[in-house]
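Think of the structure tokens as a kind of shorthand, similar to the way a musician reads notation: each symbol stands for something richer, in this case the local conformation of the backbone. In the example below we present two proteins back to back. Begin with the first one, reading the sequence and then the tokens, and try to describe in your own words what changes along the chain.
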Amino acid sequence: MLYIGADHRGFYLKEKIKEFLKTANIDFQDIGAFKYNKDDDYVDFASQVAKEVQKNPKQNKGIIICGTGIGNVIVANKFKNIRATQALTALMAQRSREHNDANILSLAADFTDPSIAWNIIKRFLKTSFIPKPNYIRRIKKIQKIEKNIKK
């Protein structure tokens, strides 16, 4: 399942992305915000998406959107088995999947046009992890860190 969430700065981009996802017949679940609220916090939505993806981190994917995309990545990467990435280009999204097996994509609503965002998302969703020994080794190192510090 694909989970999508955004704060107030990402709200309008999220709504546009939902239109693209529906048109492309991609199943998703909207985690919120469900209306524009200038006082909401990206932390709440990034956490919810991460918790949902975490239930099946190999199959589930997430999209989180805030103004810069930075805060969302910080929050989501606090969760075990989550590898969230920010991507400003389709190639960044592709590499995050191929090299890091990223399962959450963070978008920067302040800097990303909806059509560019859609291209980034399409590339993220269609790209698979490349199980090269060095990529696997690096992910195992990340998992070892998670085991020691994340609850």
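Once you have a description of the first chain, move to the second and do the same.
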Amino acid sequence: MIRPVVAIAHDYLTQRGGAERVVLAMLEAFPDATIHTTLYDPEGTYPEFRDARIVTSTLDRVAFLRRHHRAALPLLAPAASRLRIDADVTVVSSSGWAHGFDIRGRSLVYCHNPARWLYQAEEYLGDEGARARATRLLLRAVTPPLRRWDRRAAVRADRYLANSTVVRNRIGTAYGIDAEVVPPPHGMDESAPQEAVPELADWADGFHLVVSRLLPYKNVDQVISAFAAMPERLVVVGRGPEERRLRSRLGPQIRLLSGLSDAQMRWVYGRCTRLLAPSVEDFGLTPLEAATFGKPTVALRAGGYLDTIVEGRTGVFFDRSEAGQIRAALARADQVTWSGTDLRSHAAAYTNGPFVTRLRDEVAALAGDNGSDDPGQSLDPDVEASPES
């Protein structure tokens, strides 16, 4: 039997985050696949991608955009539409653009979230600064045509998967598609090599941890405010547009780090006391990473954390991302006797093996089905299925 030609599509490979780890898991499932993406920054994302075949859009010729992909927002839809993929089945990792590539075969979309800047713009931008105000004005101008483009791209898919319950609900609202939930793997291995972080040489252990991109809706500022009135130490690992503002608020017991390797991240997880997760996430990835090292999480009761945290067993919740609520939740966490065995067992259910097997089964089903029925199960008869002319 001839094996189908499989390709992988992803929005942009410019960061180190959960979505990029999912693409690495997709590459594990289909090691011969070519990755198609709008922008690729080898220095900004995981080094494992350097061994892959990667095809980029014409935007990738502009070095500035590889380092600042948000500046490419007005150009991404036309660039995505012209990025042609010739394969029997394309596995699409999308949070806004990759499902709009010019895919000539069948497509399986793994959706991290419908485009946040189109459907959750206020949450995405936050309320701080002239830059957010300018971006908000730009979004108001481009949102109507981009939503039409985005919805047409979504309903062309042959099958849609969601990474969490909250994302499944958002997909239904945005596209009228009933997607099945397939949790992604977390990609952490406690037994893998670790590397000490020089900036924490005098903090061998006993610190709290935040791992997050530094964006307004991530609420990292509220954690910093909570710890400003506490003697406990806090380590924030991340980078993003909010970095300068957050650094200006750090006290002597708070440190902000960026650019850590996987080995250093394992070292940090292994030596923290617990993880703090204050944002509305599409999928609750970092609590699983922490649980791999036997560490519990104090998290906002919302989003993907509702899928990946078992209250009282792997973490505790607070209801609003406010400094006072975060401090109160930390106090409750101090009263719980946490079981490292339970935490590690919970995380083990979200490893690469089950995810890779599921992807291969989904692709095999699509490759063997030459019918024209839409497995995406559109629930909205008003959504057009034809591509934009």
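Compare your description with these statements about the second chain. The chain has 15 helices and 15 strands.
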